[in-house]
Amino acid sequence: ETELDVFRAARPASHAEWERAERHMPDGVPMLWMAKWPGPWPVYVESASGAHFTCVDGIDHVDLCLGDTGAMCGHAPAASVAAISAQLARGSTFMLPTEDAAAVAEIMSSRFRVPVWQFSLSATDANRSLIRYARQVTRRPRILVHDYSYHGTVDEAYATLDEHGNVVARRGNIGAPVPLDQTTSVVQFNDVDALERALATREIAAVLIEPALTNIGIVLPEPGYHEAVRELCSRYGTILIIDETHTFSAGPGGMIAELGLEPDAVVLGKSIGGGIPAGAYGMTREFADRVRDSLDLEDIDVGGVGGTLAGNALSLAGIRATLSEVLTPAAFTGMIDRSTEWTAGVQAAIDEFEVPWQVTQLGARSEYSFRATAPRTGREAADADDFELQQYLHLHALNRGLLMTPFHNMALMSPATTAADVERHTVAFREAVVSLYG
Ligand code: PLP
């Protein structure tokens, strides 16, 4: 009996949902990525709480994917649900602020080291807005990203280097509006010299960077890299945007607080709203003043940034409750402990069978990769990708009630994840390694 047979036999109700959904949605899902699972059809969710969800087939799962970080707060955290429900009952969209606005901006400022905040519906929107602001104040055309970084479906950020070193749209950047070599420069992570060459052209409005790459496995910054990025951005007049969307896993103030980074602007999203759409972007006072000075506020037709539902009362109620009562400093301590246990468990199986893989932990998030040493660049990490192997391991896990993220070998811990949840996966992971190499 293969893992595919096991999946098919266990999930008839999901199959029925899928057959119905397929008539009106490509691949039977409301958003394309939901079809990227290892099984022959997606698992349809019945309900979720904390670190677990139950599918329509009645199977309980430990959720190590947590909505690809969108639910790092755990599913339906009580404080967030209460605050969001109460706000929903009082109205959610006014194009006017509520009392939560100031409180949320204060919380964001105290955690992420910049004092001026705006809100959006997603991290993608936040990145788009900051890129516009950076172009507005610098009057420069280009942005710089790192190879194999991901910053959302932002046209010009979803770029890579081809084998000749030319900037091209990443595979999957569907219908990119202009050739990306006109909008974007790309360098390898941790390559200070390449970064300096790019910034010295003085054409780069913004460096958009994750503190560690997290969308091609985890690639950590080498000592001094962020200091060099900061220094070079200042020297060449480039706005430094730090995208903490995933690296928020490092602690209550993300890697910005952990490493004492000094961005001009910061992006957050995914789990901050407690499970509902919410994004945020922060700026230094200096950058925010430059933006303000560059705009004609008398005659402002603000169309390039913002949106009808951005910063709505529901998102702000969700962020306030989630950051003050769910993703607290104490919760991070527990999440990081669970992640350390997971990392040790996975490492133990790798060591026991001398498999040439390695594990990298980033706070509450940890990920194995199919190479013997930690990658230094996105390119090195990408070269170790093995889609079939990943699909096998994910399907093996899913058949044992354990959900991994389709695009990552990643396990993410929520405040609700227990040591027993972690062990359920590390035991299954060892079993999978035995099935492959035992
Ligand atoms: N930034 C980073 C670092 C991300 O990993 C992602 C999504 O994975 C985004 C931004 C975009 O987030 P969203 O799809 O919620 O807009």
From TrEMBL:
<dbReference type="Pfam" id="PF00202">
    <property type="entry name" value="Aminotran_3"/>
</dbReference>
<keyword id="KW-0663">Pyridoxal phosphate</keyword>
<comment type="similarity">
    <text>Belongs to the class-III pyridoxal-phosphate-dependent aminotransferase family.</text>
</comment>
<dbReference type="InterPro" id="IPR015421">
    <property type="entry name" value="PyrdxlP-dep_Trfase_major"/>
</dbReference>
<dbReference type="InterPro" id="IPR015424">
    <property type="entry name" value="PyrdxlP-dep_Trfase"/>
</dbReference>
<dbReference type="InterPro" id="IPR005814">
    <property type="entry name" value="Aminotrans_3"/>
</dbReference>
<dbReference type="InterPro" id="IPR015422">
    <property type="entry name" value="PyrdxlP-dep_Trfase_small"/>
</dbReference>
<protein>
    <submittedName>
        <fullName>Transaminase</fullName>
    </submittedName>
</protein>
